[in-house]
């Protein structure tokens, strides 16, 4: 396909004068199917419009010359391209998209500092990137590459950051300070795990973190939405400076090695709290300052003890169940039950607490809107089992918790 663009008079003459040229792409898109076609852009300092590489371009394309592309730079479903570079490009006004470019192994945009969105997906041989470094982007997705490092991506703020299925990526550290929409980190460093260090992160809208061996957020103060940690490999997790979540939930599900969870400053969870199927977690005592939970609390696991020493309001239900004998914990926490269950009303919804429930780890969904009437068929009637729910309320009160009234 022909490269079609309208060039200002000067640009046509090349050389220094042409360097200042703004090339306005007719129809908005320049298609590049060969290096020769890429070279035609060399005299454009600014390309107004998008540059799209075709599906068959040959192995190497260098787009040096332009400093700016105002639209997108896109390569999709290209099985030829092995290297893509530009020694001059500093900004892409739209999206820099590389999708299903199966042979690309190196990207070198040594001056590129700004893009609106970086969307790199299904680049299964990509092992080397050089960027300006990139210091400005609204969105970054890096998925299915063999990158070992994301050096070169050096953002302090981003709206969306999604790093998934990069199977050789074992380490990610970033000076990221604020995150407006979401951070998703999942299925990286296969077999090895990914360690994540975000020393400067102060607030983040939402986080979904899975399959990491370490997640360090020493400065994190606020999660505006939700933070969710699933199937991670870490033994220890701490958010030492987190004071509250504004609206969303905190959840830890299926983190098999987790044995030490600490939120020493957390006072408010705007949404709910879900801690489930973290089978090595013996005690849920992470929430020493937690006063208020805007949603429900649901705890499931093999823990022997649960402590909420500062709790004064839970808007939703509290539903606790363990494989272990937590009858003492259930008794202790029943003082927070709603008045109609004999407690002091700290908990607005139904209070339910079950000990010796062999299936405690099976019911781990985040639906915390249940009535709290846990089906006690496994153990409610056994000597060891005991459930604190509406049905047993009378028994609870009789058992000596009337004082809590
Ligand atoms: C990926 O691109 C190749 C061409 O290189 C194409 O044959 C294949 O169908 C594309 N895969 C997807 C999932 O689009
Ligand atoms: C990237 O390109 C720059 C400028 O063209 C060059 O100096 C550098 O060596 C290249 N880096 C790699 C890793 O190829
Ligand atoms: C998140 O909370 C922080 C601290 O309260 C606030 O400064 C920031 O604007 C909030 N961000 C979003 C996206 O709501
Ligand atoms: C990675 O995490 C997901 C949950 O997001 C889980 O389904 C998957 O099994 C985990 N993989 C490994 C290897 O832990
Ligand atoms: C934790 O918060 C305190 C109080 O706001 C602050 O002085 C301290 O620097 C924070 N620590 C980190 C590592 O950000
Ligand atoms: C749990 O983690 C916290 C914070 O990282 C640490 O101070 C504490 O020593 C750990 N506790 C145990 C028993 O390892
Ligand atoms: C958790 O409890 C279940 C059910 O009793 C048990 O099968 C499992 O081995 C326990 N896991 C750990 C790590 O204790
Ligand atoms: C609980 O976590 C273990 C891994 O620790 C996993 O094998 C199991 O499928 C999880 N249970 C549920 C119900 O998801």
Automatic annotation (TrEMBL):
It is found in: Secreted, Cell wall. Residues 1-18 form the signal peptide. Its main location: secreted. Gene3D superfamilies: Receptor L-domain (3.80.20.20). It holds the Pfam family Ecm33. Coiled coil: none annotated. Keywords: Cell wall, Glycoprotein, Secreted, Signal. Transmembrane segments: none annotated. This is Uncharacterized protein. It comes from Remersonia thermophila.
């Amino acid at each position: 396909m022909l490269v079609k663009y309208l060039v200002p008079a000067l640009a046509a003459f090349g050389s220094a004068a042409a360097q200042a040229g703004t090339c306005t792409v007719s129809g908005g898109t320049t298609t590049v199917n060969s290096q020769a076609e890429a070279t035609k852009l060399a005299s454009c300092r600014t390309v107004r419009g998008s540059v799209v590489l075709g599906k068959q371009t040959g192995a190497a394309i260098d787009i040096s010359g332009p400093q700016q592309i105002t639209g997108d730079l896109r390569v999709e479903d290209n099985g030829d391209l092995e290297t893509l570079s530009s020694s001059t490009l500093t900004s892409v006004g739209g999206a820099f998209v590389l999708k299903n470019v199966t042979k690309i192994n190196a990207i070198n945009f040594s001056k590129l500092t700004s893009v609106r969105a970086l969307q790199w997906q299904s680049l299964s041989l990509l092992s080397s990137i050089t960027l300006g470094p990139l210091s400005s982007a609204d969105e970054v997705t890096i998925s299915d590459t063999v990158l070992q490092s994301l050096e070169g991506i050096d953002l302090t703020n981003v709206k969306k950051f999604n790093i998934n299925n990069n199977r050789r990526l074992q380490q990610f550290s970033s000076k990221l300070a604020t995150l407006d929409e979401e951070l998703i980190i999942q299925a990286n460093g296969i077999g090895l795990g990914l360690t994540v260090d975000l020393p400067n992160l102060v607030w983040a809208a939402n986080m979904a973190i899975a399959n990491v061996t370490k997640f360090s957020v020493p400065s994190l103060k606020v999660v505006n939405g939700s933070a969710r940690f699933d199937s991670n490999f870490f033994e220890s997790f701490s958010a030492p400076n987190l004071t509250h979540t504004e609206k969303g939930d905190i959840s830890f599900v299926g983190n098999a090695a987790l044995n030490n969870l600490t939120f020493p400053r957390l006072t408010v969870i705007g949404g709910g709290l879900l801690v489930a199927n973290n089978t090595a977690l013996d005690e849920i005592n992470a929430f020493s300052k937690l006063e208020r939970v805007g949603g429900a609390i649901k705890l499931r696991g093999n823990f022997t003890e649960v402590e909420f020493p500062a709790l004064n309001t839970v808007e939703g239900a509290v539903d606790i169940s363990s494989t272990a004998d937590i009858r003492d914990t259930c008794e202790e926490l029943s003082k927070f039950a709603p008045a109609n269950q004999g407690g002091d009303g700290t908990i607005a919804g139904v209070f339910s607490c079950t000990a010796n429930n062999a299936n405690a780890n099976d019911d781990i969904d985040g639906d915390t809107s249940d009535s709290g009437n846990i089906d006690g068929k496994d153990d409610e009637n056994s000597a060891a089992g005991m459930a604190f729910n509406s049905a047993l309320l009378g028994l609870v009160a009789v058992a000596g918790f009337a004082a809590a009234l």
